[in-house]
């Protein structure tokens, strides 16, 4: 992780820099999650030092930001492979990286140092915009737009100059939509319904449309790179997935418009299209596992005939990408489908069930494949031809997966209790909320969430250690 020794392209070196910041932010995300989880059990913990709302905010902002960093890293890393060219404008691309990293650091320091105070117009500009997941103040928003424009120009100009593969075409179109949507989260209206309406354009249309398409492109690239899968087949799948993801995800947005004061026709639109969202996730699941199995079959047949075969050349990356296929389907597809119909959502809305889905979906759909890309980066940077799982790689993937699944189960149980007691039985009022919060099912679940969070964190330590050492160990052999 610390070397770029075997990378020819500036683009890939820049990609590695993005990965390095991403992994640090991932660690920070988990630490802040642990603080928030402790505060659920002992509310006085770090009171007036690092309050729950701030710990929670940094937890989820760091989540989004590390993922964005890892996504930019992945694009810069794959760009020369796909286009056959060095990135156009490497110098300004590097400058943008440092500007973005410095801005993120300042934003987080301000979050930590200014935790309370009046909410004025200047607060929105300088401290915190107050929109969950994208709380960065407006000065940083504008900076982000500038950096993203530079990034997009890097990608687009390189694409126009080099080979235009299907994967790159999908990425170039998708990144434009992804970046454009960020603008919807920058306008302020003092009508909370309108504010939420636009805010969901960013949150939902990111994770359930543009980010998913992005992941499809990464998986396609990964399968070609790791398995030597046939490009025509992988790209054919990719186009089908793009069609289905946009077909269901865009109007699936309606599942957030059930109870915020938008017209009632959103019940039907949201129910129908969001119920279709798991379909492309099944396709992505089948795609990865089918291609993997098929390649293995080909190889065995070829090996029997004494031909040379292209073996899996990076088992940690392949492990995380295969986990992505399962995790995306489970976290987004199944846990998402559970609460997506208005008839169900009226009971589950905003309970710990939502948090269960949020954790498993973000982890399964995004953390996994981005970690896989980091392993691909480390492989290239350290010049290892065939990278195999070490003991640390195995501990990392096992403990992190077990930990996140454990947290998900605990939160699902807590959510179930809220649905039955707080909502169905007691009618969902203020008192009902507090009664439900203090029942044993809830308090025990919060204890388990913390325990499983610690397991996740230990897994992260193994992951970091592995990423730092695996290139070196393998290159020495
Ligand atoms: C990878 C994709 C996905 C991610 C990362 C994700 C993440 C999240 C997160 C973090 C929330 C909570 C937002 C908040 O703070 O209020 C949420 C809410 C929700 N998600 Fe997803 N989601 C994904 C896919 C899906 C899919 C495919 C479905 C449906 C089939 C779905 C259905 C829902 C619903 C209905 C809510 C609203 C919950 C409520 O009313 O409280 N999600 N999602
Ligand atoms: C050390 C492990 C972790 C712990 C202890 C932890 C703990 C927490 C806590 C206490 C909250 C606030 C919940 C609330 O307000 O009720 C939260 C929110 C959240 N966390 Fe984590 N977390 C951890 C890891 C992760 C990971 C790995 C991801 C995703 C990859 C993640 C994604 C989220 C999301 C999306 C939310 C907002 C959920 C919502 O509002 O529905 N967390 N987490
Ligand atoms: Fe959604």
Task: Give descriptors for this structure.
mainly alpha, globular, 16 helices, binds fe (ii) ion, binds protoporphyrin IX containing FE, 477 residues
Question: How would you summarize the topology of this molecule?
Answer:
Elements: H1 10-41, H2 52-83, H3 90-113, H4 121-126, H5 138-161, H6 166-182, H7 192-227, H8 231-252, H9 265-276, H10 278-304, H11 315-338, H12 342-348, H13 352-382, H14 391-425, H15 430-437, H16 440-476
The structure holds protoporphyrin IX containing FE (2 copies) and fe (ii) ion.
The site of one protoporphyrin IX containing FE (HEM) has 23 residues, from helix 7, helix 11 and helix 13.
N-end to C-end Cα span: 17 Å
Biggest sheet statistics: none
Report the principal-axis shape: globular
Strand content: under 5%
Q: Give me the strand/helix succession.
A: HHHHHHHHHHHHHHHH
| Number of DSSP helical runs | 16
- Mean pLDDT, to the nearest integer, reads 95
Estimate percent helicity. Answer: over 70%
Radius of gyration: 22 Å
Spell out which ligands are present: protoporphyrin IX containing FE, fe (ii) ion
Describe this structure in words.
The protein has 477 residues and is mainly α. The protein has a domain at 1-163. It contains 16 helices and no strands. The protein has helices spanning 10-41, 52-83, 90-113, 121-126, 138-161, 166-182, 192-227, 231-252, 265-276, 278-304, 315-338, 342-348, 352-382, 391-425, 430-437, 440-476. Helix 1 (10-41) packs antiparallel against helix 2 (52-83) and helix 1 runs antiparallel to helix 16 (440-476). The radius of gyration is 22 Å and the shape is globular. 48% of the residues are buried. The model has no long low-confidence stretch (mean pLDDT 95). It binds protoporphyrin IX containing FE (HEM) (2 copies) and fe (ii) ion. The site of one protoporphyrin IX containing FE has 23 residues, from helix 7, helix 11 and helix 13.
